[in-house]
Amino acid sequence: MSQATSNTTPEAPSTATGAAGSARFAGWDSRKYNYFTPKGRKATHYEDMTLDVQPDPKRYLLQDWIMSFGNGDTTYTESWTAARSSDWHVYRSVDEEWERTHYQRQSTIVGMISQAIENARRSGAAQRYDKTWVKVLEKHLGAYKHAEFGLGTSLMHAQRYGYTQMINSAILTNSSYKLRFAQDITLYLGDIGLDIEGFDAEIGKTQWLEDPIWQPTRQLIEAIGGATDYLEKYFAVNVVFEPLIGELFRSGFFMQAAAAQNDFLTPTVVSSAEGDFQRNLANSVELFHMLTADAAHGNHNKALFADWMTRYGDLAVHAAKNLQPIWSLPRTKVAQFEEAYAAAVERMKAISQQIGVALPASLSA
Q: Is the Cα torsion angle 251, 254, 259, 263 positive or negative in sign?
């Protein structure tokens, strides 16, 4: 769809009759819709398929919501988040992902990982992993998949409350990527376990529930899941957890240390999540920057996000530092926690500057 203009006849006065087709308005004789203003010169397929799919009484439902909950609550409401916006419909996701493109991207990623694992197994790659490294994969990559699953389910809940379809879709695809990666890890560990004698693909759950190393991370995941504000969850996942825990652990540990342990496969599996994060982060920054730059509500949103940053940032700093012993586990030590953590903090600084929110004292110290 694209914004259209009519050059055939001048706009005619409205008639008093209510007969269908009797009223004439700007663009009345055009065969193209012009009910929204595209971000660029022409509407994209993403905008056509996503914008205003979710109704809004402020725009089109002149009779207000057609349906409501039994207690009188409306189908959607702006009060489901403490953040405020002069116009929620301005938001567009950076990756412009909608249903079809999302399924295509997910299918491509799964195919890539499946092919890599199949080729590696055919060559006996897992049998050449360092024995100490195998234990790291069993226990700690196996534990980390539960964090990814927890974030995925939190975002799945959050997406229902997104006030516009554009925001709803961005959070929903984010959830889908998280759940897929948790599944990727599960299938990967199960596959290589077939080739490694005595491999325990279930011990990761025990580590997640009982190992002191992982308990602060569990606390953070449960705090995010317990939030009732859907944008608070979205913020906590992409602005706080991902750079300070997710990227730190995936890129700062597994993708750095694996090759030295004769493991060239794990980085391939893990790298898919790094690509997911780049897209989800771009979408998140676009939304939160829009809210902090809002002429009417920017100051309110900055104060709100600063509170979220402190609340989850303090938990994430504690969780990240508690993971430090994992860096000392591999037999060949090529990755250093201090370097990985410093990079994570720099990443947080860059993200906070883009959004326009200061870092908490626990990170800026």
A: negative
Backbone Cα Rg of the chain? 24
Q: Determine the residue type at 65.
A: W
What pairs with residue 68 in β-bridges? 74
Tracing tokens 């898919």 back to the chain, one arrives at 272
What pLDDT digit, counting tens, does each position of 170-227 carry? 999 999 999 999 999 999 999 999 999 999 999 999 999 999 999 999 999 999 999 9
pLDDT digits (tens, 9 = 90+) for 273-312: 999 999 999 999 999 999 999 999 999 999 999 999 999 9
- Contact status, residue 36 vs residue 47, Cβ threshold 8 Å: yes
Residues forming a β-bridge with 74: 68
Report the alpha-carbon distance of residue 217 to residue 227 in Å, rounded: 16
Instruction: Tell me which residue of 108, 130, 153 sits closest to 275, measured CA to CA.
Output: 108
* Torsion (CA) 218, 221, 226, 228 in degrees, nearest 10: 170
Angle between helix 298-322 and 266-292 (nearest 10) = 150
